[in-house]
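Most newcomers find our protein records easier to grasp once they have seen one. Sequence and backbone structure share a record, each on its own labelled line. To make this concrete, we reproduce a full record directly below:
***
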Amino acid sequence: MSDSDIDNGIPRRRLLGAAGAAGAAGLVLGAGGGAAGYAAASGSGGGHGDAKALASVGSTAVPFHGEHQAGITTPLQARGHLVAFDLAPGAGRKEAAALLRRWSAAARKMTAGEPLGDADTGVALDAGPSSLTVTFGFGRTFFGRTGLEKQRPAALDPLPDFSSDHLDARRSNGDLWVQIGADDALVAFHALRAIRKEAGEAARVRWQMDGFNRSPGATAQPMTTRNLMGQVDGTNNPKPSEADFDRRIFVPADGSGEGPGWMAGGSYAVVRRIRMLLDDWEKLTRGDQEKVIGRRKSDGAPLTGGSETTDPDLEKAGPDGRPVIAADAHARISAPEQNGGAAMLRRPFSYHDGIAADGTPDAGLLFICWQADPLRGFVPVQRKLDRGDALSPFVRHEASGLFAVPGGARDGEYVGQRLLES
């Protein structure tokens, strides 16, 4: 094999094969040559001529650096871990800066498909990056503990109480929040272990939640995911192609938005652990389930007709003169036009934590939504749902958190540097 057939010790035919497979599936998000990093670095697969290209799912890489952090507009991944940390007693701004520097360095390597050197556990040695993303955020209490209270955004004021809340304080909030997503369970676990190990003595885990979605390629064609109630979930999400998407989801990068400058290009994540009372839900007929949601279960189309992407006709009445989509249907109450145009980007994971003490499944949704301002995104919609959503008897909000997620790190920076070194 000639020198022209090798890039940085990785066979060019392997790089091209991996990139080609990912491109054919429409999944390439900037692999940057890291797609074959783990296997090549470990010398697996025999000599260079015997190495095989990774499948498209494994070869897909999401860049760590950018205007926004990855894991916000990234397509839903098959596996996820949500972890909140509290700074250790005595740890302050200096320790927090060193921690974010370590976390960012590890995340950059892992998302590119590179091993972590001597600190690598070897869990993901055979895999590519598998769309791994690692996203970092700050909770309200972080700022007081680091002497940065004046830099705390007003948007981090505590969320209001809702009547449907049954919140466990031990599984809510936190100084720091990390979202990990990947299309391979071992790659996601490897990142989780690395993040926890790199925390060292600076921070301690407050809570951890593990989730999943449908695996890429499990359906005949790409489609909106389903939740554990069997419903198509996420139809009304704002699209990046929409003219006002950035304004709704991200803090303006030009400094024209409210709040501190270090949040430019960032977003706010509301995290809710929502238990689904599946035994009660599954006692309903399919028709009654569809009335509760306001959409067909088969394809997610509104009960007023069309396809999943058809706008519901909220004025349409049936033969009995009543609205086809009931006044308390989830699709009606949560519709942006019913909430002053309030919009948020929902990017959840499902979860199943076994059987609860009462014999029912401890399962549901790790609800994560993104918006430029939670007081204009999540809060008005949740208030409306709280007052009369037909879905409310079948769900229970058990944990909650609100986090400021700064813009992406530039090359050579770590996440949060503009805050911690201001």
Summary: Residues 10-61 form one domain. The radius of gyration is 22 Å.
